[in-house]
Specification:
Blueprint: H1 23-26, H2 57-84, E1 88-92, E2 100-105, E3 111-114, E4 122-124
Antiparallel strand pairs: 1-2, 2-3, 3-4
The chain binds zinc ion (ZN).
Zinc ion (ZN) binds at residues 93, 95-96, 99, 115, 117, 120-121.
Length: 125
């Protein structure tokens, strides 16, 4: 679960966060590393950003619960894929139960799989 500011979108990728704050304007001077930025929970100077909005404990718990369910479904799909004994094919998606997870298994055993349902299972090992 991301425990950083809700507006953080990657200071290495973007000049500004989603709240329009320019990262270099709020970084603590003479410091480096993520804690120099107010976007993170252990920031040395969180007050540098007036738009800082950290997730609540309830939001973090809800996100963790969603991730746990996603992981459970991913492992169920993975188990079903391996049980087919095939190197490519499809299995019923254990998450949405409305589509097939299409998969292929590389010679090294790594699985690539995706369910076509929006925001459903997809992974590459
Ligand atoms: Zn699905």
């Amino acid at each position: 679960m991301s425990v950083w500011c809700k507006h953080y979108n990657g200071c290495g990728k973007h000049d500004q966060c989603t709240a329009g704050i320019t990262y270099k304007d709020v970084v603590a001077p003479d410091l480096c590393g993520i804690n120099a930025y107010p976007c993170f929970p252990d920031s040395v100077q969180p007050s540098l950003c007036h738009s800082r909005q950290m997730p609540t404990a309830e939001e973090i718990a809800a996100e963790d619960a969603k991730l746990a369910i996603y992981t459970k479904h991913l492992f169920a799909a993975r188990k079903a894929i391996i049980a087919t004994g095939q190197t490519a094919g499809s299995v019923l998606c254990p998450r949405c139960q409305d589509a097939s997870v299409y998969f292929s298994i590389a010679p090294n055993g790594h699985i690539r799989a995706t369910c076509p349902t929006t925001d459903c299972l997809t992974w590459i090992e």
